[in-house]
Structure formats: structure tokens, C-alpha cells
Amino acid sequence: MDPSFGEFLKGELSAIRAQGLYKEEWPLLGHQGPEIRVEGREGHVLNFCANNYLGLSGDPQLLKAAHQALDRWGYGLSSVRFICGTQALHTELEKRVAAFLGMEAAILYVACFDANGGVFEPLLGAEDAILTDKLNHASIIDGVRLCKAKRFLYEHMDLADLEAKLEEASSARFRMIVTDGVFSMDGDIAPLPEICDLADRHKALVLVDDSHATGFMGKTGRGTPEHCGVAGRVDILTTTFGKALGGASGGAIAARQETIDLLRQRSRPYLFSNTLAPVVAGATLEALARLSQSTELRDRLEQNTLLFRERMTASGFEIRPGVHPIVPIMFSRFAPDDAPLAQRFARALLDEGIYVKGFFFPVVPRGLSRIRVQLSAAHTTGHVERAVAAFTKVGRALGVLPG
After folding, report:
1. Which of 259, 293, 327 marks a domain boundary?
2. Which of 68, 120, 300, 315 has the most CB atoms around it within 10 Å of its CB?
3. pLDDT, tens digit, for every residue of 72-107?
4. Is the pTM of this model over 0.70?
5. How confident is the model over 274-302, as pLDDT tens digits?
6. For the chain, how many structural domains are there in total?
7. How many CB atoms lie within 10 A of CB 27?
8. Average model confidence (pLDDT) for the chain?
9. Which residues contact 18 (CB under 8 A, 6 or more apart)?
10. Strand (E) positions, 68-149?
């Protein structure tokens, strides 16, 4: 390697550390769950920062389904789908995903990042326009960049700005509005009824990434379209199996049959990436079956979320309002250089037996650092109360709350 490049890398890493932006990894010593063991620490700590919304990541029934899939379908297929990588297991999962989401058809990917990376370029060209929320997930940003359609950024959940951008793009052949259903850093829920109304008036398509909603938002867990009352009005849904539906990997796109058929022919991550591992497909089928039988898990998650939000607000913390189990604890009013504070706070909480992580630039804008708490159906009331008590103790010690 060119020595000057090595020096450049060292300098970049030093700058990241000096700014308090270096992201540490704390290895777990076991499976994911509400109580975990962390390398270098004695005993268990409570995990409040996983996307394990329904508590299924270590669920015995999912583990059993995964073992059964491994025994019957094998470890991997060493192939992409159209060569020799499609099993009846995969086509069954696609049918079940489509039915669960209320769409005509679905297509599998190894991750939702790949789904978002492979959905725009096959469907839209240089004569088209994409209107995308400024706070959309990085995978959407990257997917849009791969497409030749003209890009219009609208201010976060700003309907007036979105309509202005739709009018600006009126000469495009097709226009597609793209939004996260739930924005992962804030827990904001997109105003889908108003977005769908704008799409109807301007004859635009609507694509929603529902990764932080599938399985638990809405009365039966069908996601933000159900939660917002717009089921049947969203043209394309992308989502993941790596959060509420077991937490391993995998993603999907659900849409009309013709849309999915064209993606099978042209979507590069689908055509050139290995098939989703059978063990993930088998366990995801079990997760969907569980959610179709009962709303117990999403109901318990809703209760835990309400309890945590109420207790943290009563304790004096600044949290982003909402109903989602993503609960950002904000620090911007306490320190101009809030990234180091968020990291100190997270380390102090770990000493109190609560595992959370600080989020800071470039994951969130400068000056908006936070600790992002995520509730799970696997948490008990006792877990929630312990977390609030630990936050309060550390908040007072670090001057975030009055002593």
C-alpha cells in the first residue's frame, strides 16, 4: 500500500476519535434478548437498543423452525435465484409476505438494504422523477443514486414542500414519492394519508420502506399503511426480516404482480446476489404464522412503549414525542458538543446494567446526538422500571437532570 494512503487513514481515524465520533462495538456473549451478556463484564445487562421489537430473535419456536429448515433445506444454495437458487421454501415465503402485507406479490432479497438498492433503477429512467424525504434511510439514498431519474429532496415530512416538488417535477413521465414509514433515528411516522392524497392528485406512485413497522405497527401488525389507514393505497412496500420478524437478515419488496415480475428480470441485487439462506426463510415463515394467529406480542410492545415514554417524561428527560418503540433521549440542550455526552451517558448506563448506545454524527446531524432507546415485547415491567431508574441516576450524575 502507498505509505501516504496509510497515513491518510490514520489521520482520518484520529480525527474521528478526537471529535468524539468513534463508534465502539461491545461484543455480546450469547443470543439476542432482553437480558444479554457483554464481553468483559460480569453478569447480565438489560438490552434497550435492539431492533428486536417483538422479542423473536431468541424465541424458542423460531429457533426450532430454523433448525427444521436447516435439516430439510440445507445451509445455502451457492446460487442466485434464477440459476439454481430457488426452493419451494422461497416461493412460499414470497406468497406469505405478500398476503401478510396485503399486496399481490413479493420478491426476496438478502437484506432490505439490497431491496432499496435494487428497486429504483429497474423501474424508473432519466425521464422520471423521484421525490424523497431528506431523512430517508441510507439504503434509500444509495438506491436513488443508482437510478437515472431526477431526484427531488423534500423537507422532512413537509407536505407543502413535497407538493411544490411534485409541481416542479410535473413534466416527468412518472413521479415516485419515497418515504420511510417510520424514521429510524426519531421514531417519526410518515404522514401517509396526506402523502397518498398528494400522490392521487398528482398521479404519482408511492413507495414506503416499512422496516421499522412491519410486524407491530397497526392493529394486526401490518405496518404503517394499516396504522395510518392507507392499506391498498401504497404502490410499493420494502421491508426487512432483520428487525421484528426474527432479526437475522433478509428483506422483501411487495407490490403489484407486474412490478415484482419486472424486478425479477432487472433488479441487480436480486440477480447477482446469493439466495436468502433457507434457515432465515424457514424462521421468517414461522414468525409470520405467529403474527397471523395473535396480536399478543405487538400489544405487549405497545404497553411497554407507553410505560417507558410516560416514566421518562415524568423524570424530566427530553424525548421525541410519539407512539413508536423508538424513543430518542436528546442531549442538545445540555451541551453544545453533545456527541461525547451521549457516549459518556451510554457507558455510564452500561455500568448500571443497561445496554444502550449513543447516536451522533454522521448517523444523525451534528448537534442532535442522542441515545436511541428501543422497547421490545420481551421486556417486562420490571425491566422498564429498572431502565428508567438507571437513566435518572446517570442523568443526575452527568448534569442532564437536576441533582
Report:
1. 293
2. 120
3. 999 999 999 999 999 999 999 999 999 999 999 999
4. yes
5. 999 999 999 999 999 999 999 999 999 99
6. 2
7. 8
8. 94
9. none
10. 105-109, 129-133
317 and 240 both lie in a single domain: no
Would you say the C-alpha torsion 228, 231, 237, 240 has a positive or negative sign? positive
Q: Which helix (H) or strand (E) holds 382?
A: helix 381-397
Q: For the chain, how big is the Rg over CA atoms in Å?
A: 22
With 70 as the cut, is the pLDDT of residue 385 above it? Answer: yes
Shared-domain flag, residues 33 and 80: no
Look up the domain containing 158 and give its range.
Answer: 60-293
pLDDT of 346 reads 92
Counting residues of the chain whose pLDDT is more than 90, the rounded percentage is: 85
Examine the domain organization and report whether 326 and 289 are in the same domain: no
SS3 of the chain: helix, strand, coil, percent, to 5: 45, 15, 40
- What is the 8-class DSSP label of residue 38? B
Question: Catalytic site residues?
Answer: 184, 212, 243
User: Cis link prior to 34 (omega < 30° from 0)?
Assistant: no
148 and 204 housed in the same domain: yes
Take residue 368 and report the three cell numbers written for it: 442532535
Query: 26-30, 151-155, 205-209: lowest mean pLDDT where?
Result: 26-30
* Beta-carbon-side half-sphere exposure of residue 322 (alpha carbons within 13 Å): 21
User: Grid coordinates in use for 321?
Assistant: 414525542
Hey, which bits of 44-145 come out as E strands? 44-47, 105-109, 129-133
